[in-house]
Amino acid sequence: MTKILLCDLNFVKDFFNQWGTSIQAITVVILVGITTWYARTTKTMSRIMLNEYKLKTRPYLSIERAVDRYFNNLQNTIQLGFHFINLGNVSVKYYVEELMLSGVNINPQRIDTILLPKQEGIIRTGIISFNSQTNINGDGLNGHIRIIFWPDGLNNERYYYTRHFSLAPNTLTNIVSEDSNKL
What we know:
Elements: H1 2-57, E1 61-72, E2 77-86, E3 92-101, E4 104-105, E5 113-115, E6 120-124, E7 128-129, E8 141-151, E9 159-167, E10 174-182
Antiparallel strand pairs: 1-2, 2-6, 2-7, 3-4, 3-5, 3-8, 8-9, 9-10
């Protein structure tokens, strides 16, 4: 029995002496292939996780559909109120960049405001006077508001939100169009 075992060991020893280098080369090629596949898979997963992180930390600020408006037809004045809501998962800083109503710039003073996630805020304009030629009661007033917003703490990543609207007394606000994107 010892002779058979020694014979088998000699066979194995001879086999590896003859083919050992080839076996090592094949093993290295297989391991390089596995490592390449693993690196590509890891890179893909990393890209997916980064995109998911960006989506979770991107601010989403919206203006509610209704615009508070307070007409005073006797004095030809109006005051507007815009309700903002943070729909995202991160705190958002924002300011009103532009607020136009029938060609009149009624931009309020720039104040950086913070909204926590799922929090609402409001901006009211001052009382806006119109001359008697402005038809508040007829076709209504057309305007737009553009806000700039960014995640609190990240000043380099800014977004904008623009809403074009039409106001008429005793009716709901007509939203003409909306636009939101990264600056």
